[in-house]
Prior knowledge:
With 544 residues, the chain is α+β, with helices and mostly antiparallel strands. The chain contains 18 helices and 18 strands. The protein folds into 4 domains: 3-138, HprK N-terminal domain-like (Udp-n-acetylmuramoylalanyl-d-glutamate--2,6- Diaminopimelate Ligase, Chain: A, domain 1); 149-283, GAF domain (Beta-Lactamase, 2-Layer Sandwich), CATH 3.30.450.40; 321-451, Alpha-Beta Plaits (2-Layer Sandwich); 461-540. It is 44% helix and 18% strand.
Amino acid sequence: MGIALYQLLAQEYFKEFHVIAGQKGLSREVQGVAVMDAPDALRWTKGKELIMTSGYALSKDPYCLERNFQEGVAQLATGLMIKRQRYLDVIPDHLMELFGRYDVPLISMPFEIGFMDVINQVNVAVMNQAFKSFRIRNDSVFRLSNLSFKERKIKRILQAVEAEMDFPAFLYDINEEKSYYSSANFRKLSERFCLKNEDYWNPSREHSKHTLCENMHMIRYRLIDPLNPDGPRISWVLIPIIMNDVTQAFFVVMESREFLDYCDEYSIRIAFLELQSLYEQIMVAQSIGNIGFENFVLYALNYDEKDQDRLIYQASQHGIFMSKKYICIMFSQTKDETVSARNERKNLMRAFLDSTVSKSGKMAFLDENRGIILWESQGKEEYDLEYLCHVLEEFRLKVKEKCNDMELEFAICRDGADLLSLKDRVRKCQKVMAMGKKLFPQNHIWDYEMLGPYAWIEIQEDELEAMLCRYRLLLQDERNREPLKTLKVYLENNMNFSVTAEKMYVHINTIRKRIDKMKELLDVSLDDRIARLKLEMLLQFLNL
């Protein structure tokens, strides 16, 4: 038993390995690794092997792989990994076309990574996949539970804390806004002392505060009642669970009987490390899952109708339902062309996971500086644009915090569609982004509906830019602003001078003079219906 190539590449170790051709073959199985040093090395391919090469044989014989494909031996390989910038500065176009034609993945491999390290990683992944298969088959007890792995794990740790120390425990997950308890005892004590969840990390009543462990940010809070100093008092120990400088959850142990002793503190540290490890696993799993999702998106953008069953199968492997509706959002990094957003994947993913957008969306790169976010529509036909802009602006600012050289812009198609329509949605977003930049250059978020009639007519970007440039040059002279505005109102009112004069609150002769001036400056005939329509549309997008 092996592992599918897209599952292998989804692992953290392979995050800098990029599939550059043959994406349709990502479901091929990997069982081992071989190294190609000679032009005819693939003659000994047995199948289900991931081939690695430094590119030396290709530099000496650029068409050796083409012969191997013609002989029918190269197709047996799961895929080919070529070291970046060892012997080949650029992967030849004919090579990428060849792998795309036969649906064999061609993968760009980092220069600094050794072949032995890759071999070890593949071997471990294959073994883990085998273990995982047996584990799933034997996990019938847990499949009957409605609780997720995270919930089961958190509850077990909290229950162990109370069983070990006889102190009730509580965890509040910030992202999920969800509370977990070791037992009902914690809630009873909270009700008795009138404590709300947020009081445990931000007490609203008079209290004392003592740091137990600075490195862990472990703090004891104790309520003070100045009106009844001899009355019952309550204290608790708080430890925030922090990942990548962002607090993910608050872990609280109630000192319901007395202060914790040394052994209790030791038990709390173990529980904290268990919880920290759980959140680390979840974060890594989210990152790996996102890379796997990215490979699925690449597959979905390159599939044919005959591959629909395979696409549906791969979607199920990522927990994606083809029947669900998704809003498509494209993002692009534009501030500095020398900066690769893909190379900043780690920081970008941190910003994404810290943002509201990650609660309903999944992110995938399309190339070095562009990607998409698929936002689950959750039964809504169309999301409010203001809300989406707010969420995307939050994400944009978080990216800017973590990557000073990166500036994101977005194109949105708000009508939900299933993943079989993903190609069309991406093309639609590309058009929104390209034309949005021309029509609304002051924005960094564009929506399909903002384009108006330009959304459903075909017009070349360079032609649109040339036309708009002419009008913007006119606007640089303040004296042209009113005549242009007059022309806009004139066209909107079927070229009626009297109605235009009435709406502009000026004499009809002034209107005539302004229209004549604009016809002369723009060199346009208003008797030409096509020219008139084009002019009326362009004037809609000028800041008049």
